[in-house]
Amino acid sequence: MLYDITRTLTPRTAVFPGDTPVSLVRVADITRGASVNVTAITCSSHGGTHVDAPLHYSAAGASIEQVDLDVLIGPCRVLTLAEPGDVTLAALQARLGETAPVRLLLHTRSSAVPDDMWDDAFAAIAPDAAEWLGSAGVRLIGVDGPSVDPASSKLLPAHNAFLRRGVTIMENLQLTGVPDGEYELIALPLRIAGIDAAPARVVLRKP
Q1: The domain at 2-205 falls in which architecture?
Q2: Which residue among 50, 56, 107, 159 is the active-site one?
């Protein structure tokens, strides 16, 4: 069983307020006499489903082509947290106990938000919850919202907690219809030199 948990990029894809919208322009068109179809793509490195590089929140951080692929491929767990508000330490510990999986994908209310709608009240991760996840053994955290921090945050405490703990961040997943449980994760961001994130095709395979 294969689950594609990638959000589809279209010109209607909602982006972080102020970020570059998605543009798809046909620059060569068979119906207009060209020998091939060719499309020019413009978008933010954080458009749709994407993997953050440490460079996104640290001037000295690694860029996306330097992110270790080993952390992006392997066993993972999908966990639904349906409570309103942000993801809290208490909610995580109640469901996970004292240890956490190496790769954890959090299914919140954000998966129900259409791709073309911006939801300012998406479920972020509380800073102490981020610290605990890193200390409990998580090396990759995936969320279905556009960020692990609230949209209004300037200090990015969850991003920085994950940075300190060496946790890779993946955002804007689509987990509707994916049952909680254990999967094999395959998440491959585009290999673009020197940038802070890249869109990724992300799939789950049931072992």
Answers
A1: 3-Layer(bba) Sandwich (3.50)
A2: 56
